[in-house]
Structure formats: C-alpha cells, structure tokens
Specification:
Largest sheet: 2 strands, antiparallel
Low-confidence stretches: 1-30, 163-170
Strand order of the largest sheet: 1-4
Radius of gyration: 20 Å
Mean pLDDT: 79
C-alpha cells in the first residue's frame, strides 16, 4: 500500500487517523511512501527526533480545545530529487523513498540538515539514524524489563474496557521463523518481538492470576485484540505495518516508553501463543 502526496498535501500523511508531517526538498515531485516504511520509521525512532542531543518527542499532546498534533518531519538521507540536498542521481528513485533512506527529525533540525547539506552529509545522517535506533531499542528494552504487574494491570484494564514482576528463569518461547515469514514480518519486527519476549512469562502469569479473580479476563483480552486484528486485516494492513499498528493501538498512541513497553510485551505474548497473526 502506498501513500501518494501531491503538492496540495505535501507536508502530511494520515496514519491511524493521525496526521504525520512529511517535508523535505521543496520540489514539485509527487512522492510515494509505503505505509509500512512510515510505520517502521516512526516505531524505530520512538516518535523522537534523531538529531544528536535533541530527541524531542514529535507528538504534541491534545489540549481541551485541540486534538494531538504531529511535529515530526521526514528527511531523505540521499535527496529524493536529483538536485535536492545530498543528491545522488545514481540511486534509483524508488530506493530513495524507502525506509532505510529516511530519517525522522523535528521541524527545526529537518530544516537545518536540508538547509546546510554540505555540513550534514549522507554518512553523518546514516550514523545518526543507526545510533538513534539503537538508543530507542536500548530504552525500550530497559522499559520492558521494568514492566511490573501494576503497569500491565493499567494497560490491560483499559484495553478490556475498550473492547510484583517475576524474572523469567527460563528463556521465553521464540517465534518460529516460518510464522514470521508467513506473516511477512521483517527483521525489524523480529527484534521488537525479542525485546517483548523479555516479559513473556510475566505477562502469561499476569493473565492467569487476573483471570482467577476476574473470570473471563483472558478471553476478553484476547477477543479485544483479535477483533482489532481483524479490522486491520480487513483494511488491508499486513506484515510490519500490521504489527506496529497493533502495538500503537495497545499503547493508545502513547510516546511514553513504559506504556509502549507494556503494549509491546502484551502483543508479543499474544503473537507467541498464536492468538494474533497466522500460525
């Protein structure tokens, strides 16, 4: 699935009902972005600016008078056009618009790097992105490790209404490669599943204990996710895009690492026990 942006809407794309700002070289070329690439880019970036030392959250919370607004801008590492910042005419046009060539920045730093392309090179932006993705992964891993009963209770209670942690002594189940391939999930999601698996046994224990005091809790939780999964499937989402949308839905769009971590842990648990995605 592609999102096509014309000049009348060249600064935004709607994903999960939110307007995501997109803006780089000031040309008149219509740009096509795979929605899966945009979802992976935002997920790997933790909704934060990749400019070193910035890490500004790129979603402004809603106010009593206005809904959330997205502040991020997507910059091309190698220019989208042959004459844009850091242009490389030898790079195929379709490759320039894929996720590996995109970096998520705040508005200020987006304009800085494209306004001073000789100071901010392709190699430098690639390093920023690699370092930033690793920082987000590290923060998310730490947050998953810190997820406790209260956080799972808070998250799952909200999910069920809408539709002391135990350290694992044995390794959690590993999603089989065949299931990953069958559901078109890439290495990016595999890494996130590995992070979420750090709390697989704790989520399993949490669901079992909560079901003892709240009969049917586990079934309602599974049914809620499954219903959302079917809605997303019917809308045409697949692969990484589908996975990221489920995690984002579970976290209610939060940019807080503890909430995103709890959401990732629950989605990973349901994925592993085959309640989500094709077995």
């Amino acid at each position: 699935m592609f999102w096509t942006l014309d000049r009348g809407d060249s600064r935004s794309v709607i994903i999960r009902g939110s307007i995501y700002a997109l803006d780089d070289e000031q040309d008149t070329v219509t740009r096509d972005y795979l929605t899966s690439d945009i979802k992976v880019l935002w997920g790997q970036s933790g909704c934060r600016c990749a400019f070193p030392g910035c890490r500004t959250v790129l979603v402004e919370d809603a106010t009593p008078h206005d809904s959330k607004t997205v502040l991020g801008k997507i910059a091309h590492i190698v220019a989208d056009s042959d004459k844009g910042p850091r242009a490389d005419p030898s790079m195929p046009a379709d490759v320039r618009r894929r996720e590996p060539n995109l970096v998520l920045l705040c508005g200020v730093h987006h304009d800085v790097v494209d306004g001073q392309p000789n100071s901010y090179t392709v190699a430098e932006l690639q390093t920023w992105k690699t370092d930033h993705v690793e920082w987000v992964r590290s923060r998310l891993t730490d947050a998953v490790a810190a997820v406790d009963f209260a956080e799972l209770q808070r998250l799952t209670k909200v999910l069920v209404l809408q539709t002391a942690p135990r350290v694992a002594e044995v390794a959690p189940p590993t999603p089989p490669p065949e299931k990953l391939r069958k559901n078109e999930l890439t290495a990016a999601v595999t890494t996130r599943l590995q992070i979420g698996s750090l709390r697989f046994l704790d989520v399993e224990d949490f669901v079992a204990r909560t079901t003892q005091s709240d009969d049917g809790f586990g079934e309602r939780l599974r049914a809620g996710f499954r219903e959302r999964y079917e809605v997303l499937i019917d809308s045409g989402l697949t692969g990484d895009e589908l996975f990221e949308e489920l995690v984002d839905w579970a976290a209610a769009g939060s940019t807080e690492f503890d909430v995103m971590a709890a959401a990732l842990a629950v989605v990973t648990y349901l994925f592993t026990i085959c309640d989500l995605f094709e077995p």
